[in-house]
# Entry
Amino acid sequence: VAPPAAAAARLCLFWGAPLAPRWTVGGEIARTRAALGLLGEAERLFIDLRLWEEAVHALMLTGKKSRAIEIVRAQLDPAATSTTTTASTASLWCYLGDLTGDGSHYETAWSVSAGTCARAKLALGAAAMRAERWADARTELREALAVKPHYAEAW
# Structure
């Protein structure tokens, strides 16, 4: 029987193990906490990891609307950051529309995404339905379905 390898020898092999990055593991922990209802802790982790969309969603669920608006506006400020992707920018515009109730934010999300943000068109269609503008609602919902045909909410 061979003697167990020394700790130093085993430690050399540590870096050969496939380890997920800190932000990936942290994001999974935060999502798990949110699923368990620990929204305050999840919100803190999302903000620490700069997972802005998830942070805004957690803030909305905890009723911290003003803080959520503050984060969204900070992320949409072109001087503040240039690292956001088109998809996350469109999603942030949709969150801003959800938080403020202003339909123009959904239009902005649609234009920023170059016509790929089905959520924006769904929200515009829902607003048109509430206003009983049926022709507009049909147009908006059809455009949402053209982008994302399996979007059950639009059917």
Remarks:
- The chain has a mean pLDDT of 88.
- Residues 59 and 65 are 7 Å apart (CA to CA).
- The chain is about 65% helix and 0% strand.
